Amino acid sequence: MLDAGAWGIVVPMVNSREEAERAVEATRYQPLGGRSVGGGRHALSFGTTASEYYAHANDEVLLVLQIEHIDGVEHADEIFSVPGVDACFIGPNDLGASMGIGLGVPLECDHPRMIEAIAHIRETARKHGVAPGIHCSSADAVNQRMQEGFQFCAMASELRYLLGGLSADIDKLNWEAALPHQIEEAGHGEIVRY
Asked: What is the pLDDT of residues 68-107, one digit of tens each?
């Protein structure tokens, strides 16, 4: 991905220092990591020379580790102390599930253990100079999280906004769905609304 021109990588389910170290090793060049220097595609993707790309890649390529399991919360200090980690991103749904709180918990879950875990991740990340991030459900939630000190927020999902816009337009249509017997009895050329 990086050689094809990605400006960063998001690594899911990082739960230990060892996993964080492997992520850094794969995304950083020497002396921080062991990313391969073979080929010239990476420099072409950024419209520069290979030497120029190598000189700046370790500082400019973003490495985000997703903390979405209680094991990641418990090892946050070890994970965020790994040199080369730029940001973390909390996945509240998976985190809540791993904590036994439930499947599909709201992104702004008010369960006391979730609130404590999210605060722990945020503060531990900030202690190590890692930008804390989180998935939010709305603009209001992003504003709330920014006030709490989060620097990297995702707002809902493309699918949610796509379906929301589609639903809003469908609600404006002047039609009713056809009943099953109307579909069966429809003749050639008739409009049938499914």
From this structure: 999 999 999 999 999 999 999 999 999 999 999 999 888 9
Q: What is the pTM of this model?
A: 0.82
8-156 maps to which CATH number?
Answer: 3.20.20.60
- As a whole number, the mean pLDDT across the chain is 89
DSSP the chain: -TTTT-SEEEE----SHHHHHHHHHHH--TTT------SSHHHHHTTS-HHHHHHHHHHHSEEEEEE-SHHHHHTHHHHHTSTT--EEEE-HHHHHHHTTS-TT--TT---HHHHHHHHHHHHHHHHTTPEEEEEESSHHHHHHHHHHT--EEEES-HHHHHHHHHHHHHHHS---PPPHHHHHHPPTT-----
Domain spans, the chain: 8-156, 159-194
Tokens found for residue 169: 């337009």
Residue 190 has pLDDT above 60, yes or no: no
Measuring CA to CA, how many Å separate 126 from each of 137, 142, 160, 188? 23, 18, 30, 66
- From the list 32, 51, 46, 48, the residue with the least C-alpha distance to 2 is 46
Torsional class of 95: left (φ above 0), alpha (ψ -120 to 50), beta (otherwise): alpha
* Listed range (5-19, 30-44, 51-65, 170-184) with the worst mean pLDDT: 170-184
